[in-house]
# Entry
Amino acid sequence: MSRNSGQALQGLRETLRGPVVTAEDPGYDEARSIYNAMIDRRPAAIAGCADVADVRTVLSFAQDNGLDLAVRGGGHSGPGLCLIDGGLTLDLTPMRWVHVDPQARTARVGGGSELGDLDHAAHAFGLATPAGIVSTTGVGGLTLGGGHGHLTRRYGLTIDNLLSADVVLADGTFVTASESEHPDLFWALRGGGGNFGVVTSFTFRLHPVATVGAALTVWPVERTREVLQWYREFLPAAPEDLSGFFALLTVPPGPPFPEPIHGRKVCGVVWCYTGDLEGEGLEKVLAVVDDPGPPLFHFAGPMPYPALQSMFDGLMPKGLQWYWRGDFFDAIPDEAIAVHEKYGRDIPTGLSTMHLYPVDGATRRSGADDTAWAYRNALWSGVIAGIDPEPANADPLRRWCVEYWTDLHPHSMGGAYINFLGEHENAGRVQGTYRDHYDRLAAVKTTYDPHNFFRANQNIPPGVS
Ligand code: FAD
# Structure
C-alpha cells in the first residue's frame, strides 16, 4: 500500500469500533484465513464492523480510496468471495448477536452471525427456523443465497422465513427491506446473493421445533443403485415432517460407527423428523430403511435440534481444502445413479462427499416468482465436495469433483444453487442459476448499485431498469 493509504488506514482505525488488520499486524494471517484453506488471498486490510455506523464508514472509505470491497459474513463461501487480493474486506464478524422475541416467534440476527448463534438463541424458547447443516456457516451468505437444511421440507427455505432485512446500500443509505418497504430489493435479497448491499441484520420467522428425531442410515457403496432407486420414490412421497439428505461418503473412524465399518465407502441418508416423537413415531417412519437392502449401520433417536445442526462440525473444522460444484435435480434417473455409483466408489479422500439435499415440500408453497430463487420446481439441490486437510491433495480433489460434475450435469436441471457454485465457474453459470429471474435481478441491481460496487459475489452486473 502507498504511504497515503497507510495514513488513511490509520484514520480508519481511529474511527471504527471494530479492529482494522493489515499485513503489518501480527494477526493478519488469522484475519485473512477463511473456512476453505484452498483460498489464499492477501487483502490490503480487513476492517471489522461493530455496527451500522462502522459499515457506512468502511463503504465510504473503500470508495474514497479506490479500493475493491468484499463483504465477509461467516467466511464459508467455497470460492472465498469475502477476500480480494489488494482489496478491503468489510468484516461483519463483530456483529454476531441474536435477539429472539418468543411471543412474536421472530429472531433478529446480526449480519455477521453464524447459524449456531441463531439455533442456540432460538432453542432456549423451543423455536427454530430452516438453515444449513453445519453450525459455523454464516447466516449472511447462506440466507442471501436462499438457504436449505433439515427443516426445509417442513418450513421452506431460509428466505421463505425472512421477514425483513436492514441494508446499507452502495451510496451509504440505510434501508429496511420487507414485503411493504422496498419490495423490489426484498425480492432480490431472497436468493440474489450479496449483490445489493450489506445486510446488517435479518429478521426471521421462527417455528416450534425443539427436539427432533435424528437418524443416520448407511449401506455399502455397492448398493448405491438399489438405495437411490428406493430413495427417489420414497422421499418425495413422504410427509413434509420427514427430511433425509442422501450422501456418498467414507465412514469416519470413530463413534457412533462400529469399528469394522470405519473407512468403508458407503451411501447413506441423514434423517430429520419433526413429527410426533411419542410412542413408536420415529421407528415406525423409518421402518422402511430395510427396503433397499439391509443397512450396514442405522442409528435413530430424539435429539435437541441444535445438536443435529452441529453434528458435522467436528468432522469439518475450518482450515480444510475444499473444492465444490453443484446442480439442481428434478429426477434421479438410472443413468445418473450409474454416475453416482462410479464416483462414490472412487471418492478420493476420507472427507470428500456428495450430498443431495431435498428442496421440495414447503418450498413449493411460495410461488415461482415470489423471490429471486428460481428453482421452486427442483426436488434436490446437489453438491459434490472434494475435501481434505492436506494441501498436496488439492489437485486430486478438484479433478474428482470436476469429472464427477461433468458426467452428472447432463442429468441436472441446468443450474446450481448459487451458494454451491465453485471457483472458476463462469457468468453463464450465474445466469443458469437465476433463469428467467436474471433480467429482473439486473434491473434491481441498477436501482440499488448502479456502479456494481458490490461485485465480490456471484455477480449480477447492472442491467436495464
Ligand atoms: P462468506 O464467504 O462470508 O460470504 C459469502 C457471500 O455472501 C459473499 O459474496 C459475501 O459478500 C456475502 N455476504 C455474506 N454475509 C453478508 C451480509 N451480511 N450482507 C451482504 N453480503 C453478505 N448452504 C445451505 O444452504 N445449506 C447447507 O446445509 C449448507 N451447508 C454448508 C456446509 C459447509 C461446511 C459449507 C462450507 C457451506 C455450506 N453451505 C450450505 C453453503 C453456504 O450457504 C455458502 O457457503 C454461503 O456463502 C456461506 O455464507 P457465509 O456468510 O459463511 O460466507
In short: The longest strand covers residues 211-220. Residues 35, 70-78, 81-82, 92, 111, 132-134, 137-138, 140-142, 144-145, 147-149, 193-194, 198-199, 316, 419, 456-457 surround flavin-adenine dinucleotide (CB under 6 Å). The CA atoms of residues 372 and 437 lie 6 Å apart. The first helix runs from residue 3 to 15.
